[in-house]
Amino acid sequence: MATKVLMPQLGESVTEGTISKWLVNVGDTVKKYDPLAEVTTDKVNAEVPSTVSGRVTEIVVPEGETVAVGTLILYIEESGAAGGSASPAQADAPVSAPAATQASTAATAQAAAPAVQSAPPARQAAGNDGAKQRYSPAVVMLSQQHGIDLSRVVGTGAGGRITRKDVQAIIDAGGQKPAEQVAEAQAPAAAPAPTAAPAQTAPAATPAPSVDIPVATGDQVVPVTPIRRTIANRMVQSKHEAPHAWTMIEVDVTNLVNFRNQVKAEFAKKEGLNLTFLPFFIKAVVEALKEYPMINSTWANDKIIVKKEINISIAVATDDALFVPVIKDADQKSILGIAKAVDDLAARTRAGKLTMDDMTGGTFTVNNTGSFGSVLSQPIINSPQAAILSVESIVKRPVVINDMIAVRSMVNLCMSLDHRVLDGLICGRFLQSVKQKLESIGPDTKLY
């Protein structure tokens, strides 16, 4: 008796995943919950666990292929099955692996390979009508490169979703045709549509050439990894969809520096944790978000959604990628609680042990660019959030106080905002609130 293993749903908005590496071979014996494959999506890297104990009889999807959620990827013959065959005809009802809770490493990875999907019913293509479509970064980028109007593309994905494979098919056929021809070309072969025959039999044109960058002697060619490709796609999508505006404010954090220096040794001894500056900045941001909840919102086409929860995304860099895990319910945490959350997320990111839950649900991002010496930056918004704040390096500078020059510890706070949602006035007030909270830190500041 063979069991089908399907591509699992690895997140609320994830519709496809890439088999980055098989961890088993045909003939291997696996136990329930043993990892079968590593899968990458645009949100996370995860291991797909086995849903049964048995022997692997067939691997359906090769490494590197991108397939839709629910696609058959593997057959396992269950232990103790009575003479069962591994053929698809004898397979049991499909079981989707519950990988969302088994994710072992975090990344923001999405391969550019065309999606491979089982053939959907013809009426699924009608899903393009009605509700506004949501497109993956790969689909958006490919359509922009080749001038494809996505509103005229008939999707073959789940619920009529447009996949990269749909767009590539139009490109391979010589570009986009009038709307009625596109529909005919993608209609099922059995459909009685005589006028569609020419479109189906016409020879495919040569795909549009990509930009050819010459490689000179001595140049190093670095392959684009799935993680780097997804970062690129998401950044392009954010800049394309959200009209970015930028503002900055400087803050005198001399009192913060002095206070932290006074308490860090005792804090480390008591908590076993290094007290950095970041938890103080996050705490100030969280308190300001309570005063200006519109900053904690997202654009949703015909409406703006102001999020009730305050979940702070933080950027954590590794040698080859940037991850953005989330501090959940940051408004309910003390400076100690935030410090522990930052330390835990950073450690698990670098160890590759984040879960899907760690990577989702962020409502506002705080980026600690000052950790590598930056004093001024213009961050790209972490879509679909409405804004992002970069905390720059704390540096000592001469400033004028009461007409006298004094040396103070100063920091720049740089904020990028989605101008569809936010305007300069509310963002200016928000930054002033953050500034006031940071500059008021002193001996009475509570860490617990």
From TrEMBL:
Domain Peripheral subunit-binding (PSBD): 134-171
InterPro entries to which the protein is assigned, alphabetical: 2-oxoA_DH_lipoyl-BS, 2-oxoacid_DH_actylTfrase, 2-oxoacid_DH_E2_comp, Biotin_lipoyl, CAT-like_dom_sf, E3-bd_dom_sf, PSBD, Single_hybrid_motif
Keywords: Acyltransferase, Lipoyl, Transferase
Keyword Nucleotide-binding: no
Region (Disordered): 111-131, 178-212
EC id: 2.3.1.-
GO molecular-function terms, A-Z: acetyltransferase activity; lipoic acid binding
Positions of the Lipoyl-binding domain: 2-77
Pfam families: 2-oxoacid_dh, Biotin_lipoyl, E3_binding
GO cellular component terms attached to this protein's record: cytoplasm
Cofactor: (R)-lipoate
Composition bias, Low complexity: 111-126, 178-209
PANTHER family linked: DIHYDROLIPOAMIDE ACETYLTRANSFERASE COMPONENT OF PYRUVATE DEHYDROGENASE COMPLEX, LIPOAMIDE ACYLTRANSFERASE COMPONENT OF BRANCHED-CHAIN ALPHA-KETO ACID DEHYDROGENASE COMPLEX, MITOCHONDRIAL
Family: Belongs to the 2-oxoacid dehydrogenase family.
Record-given protein name: Dihydrolipoamide acetyltransferase component of pyruvate dehydrogenase complex
Species: Brevibacillus gelatini
